[in-house]
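Quick bug: Dilute domain-containing protein output formatted oddly.
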Amino acid sequence: MLEFDEVGTSTPQPSLQSRMASAAASSDYYCMTFDEPEEMDDVTLNSSSAATSKRPSDCSLDEAVRGAHKQTQLLAQQNMDLNDKLTRQSEELTEARAQLRGYSGPLGLENTSDEEIIRLEAFEKGSVTHSELKPSLARLLTKNLPAYLLLAAFRSHDEKRDETALTGLFSSVHLVLKDTITRSHDLDLLSLWLVNLWRLFNLLRQYSGEDKHAEWHVANTDTQNSYRFKAYDVAPIRDQLKLRIEECYSSLMKKAIEHVFSPKIVPGILQHESSSDLMTAGQERRDRVESQRKSLDELIAFLDTVHTKLKTYGADEVVIRQVIGQMANWMCSLALNHMMFRRELCNFEKAIQIKHNVTVIQNWLNGKGLSECRDHLEPLVQACHLLQSRKDASNLDTLCGEMTSRLKPRQVVAILQHYDPSDEMEDASLSPEFLVQIQKKLNERAIANGDPIEDKDTLIMMGTYLPPFNTQPFSYSDFPLETLSLPSCLHMQSVCRLV
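Here's what came back:
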């Protein structure tokens, strides 16, 4: 977790009970009452009293010790239960505060110039309350709030021309983030920090003092330009952030998404059968595929989960396109690799069903404004068209033309080799001579298109390959920095303030 603490050591925090009492005394917060400890039932009381009321003459010393030990354990368990209840209610109170007062007014705003409005100022060393930003709380706050607060802190040191403080702050943040990204497997946490690291990376471009990249500043207002860094070059910080973005993206995709998503691909795309098909099937077949009827829905549901989380934490189109686009690429790769080697998937009827399932996914992408991600699924679409087309010498140009332009020569041949005709009018299999003609025609196409030589022998799609996150696109932010505030729920007012 990222800690916004620049003041050194801290003193012990007040107890949870004292903080709850303080909150209850304030008219700004809702008060919450707590239930009294649940009384023990009669059986428990009788048994415990019986164990402890025996005279030494009635029981041995060992029995007395065991009875006392049992009573101690019972009281300890009750104490733990009450502490758990108190902790849960405290967390509920914190979230309620965040929801009701998450946008407290800017602190310390006085008659200062625009250039001095947004600075994060650390208090003198003393009593400090450490604060961690959890995903559950981040969802209730301003999107990309950590990125904006860090920008404010960097600007403060830039205005003071304190390079040591600026680099020291980034070094501390950098180490915490690197540790968090390396250790975490949590979808929410990795999504939160990928989104914020990417936003901070772009803010350090948008508000940099560099003029050689006009596209970073062209959309800035005069007010935004007044916030640009004046004393120091933040390019080295951006270079380090770029590495952390790539690492966070890799962790998100490989550690939080892939192991959940990959097992859903083959059932959802290749094995799923629509309800209309099952209506006419026999009972035995309906029983066999009953567990697969919802597989496509589960695939779409996980896509929707990832998309929703990214949007909730404030992801822009660049992040969403790369994450969802990579998931679409994994879908195509894994499904196509299975199709090329499974005869039961290479027939006319199955091609119709697979194409239907892919269309459902493409419609979902369109609905989310991600129509460009459909392109990742095109090789799988073309494989279905290949299985549905007439396969004879008279149709050679079509089979080796635009219809299979996204498939490699060996991939086309592999699908045709495993083709299983279901129509009695077709031969049991395609002749070797016809496959040789196909291969020759496809090789000529590859040469004419200037395709790399290695493509001629490529068969397996790299289903688990993950390209690095592309940090080249620039993402402009129109967030008005002068409205930035410190939400009271973060308890950062004792650590720093915005001035």
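Actually, after a second look the formatting is fine. The chain is about 55% helix and 0% strand. Closing.
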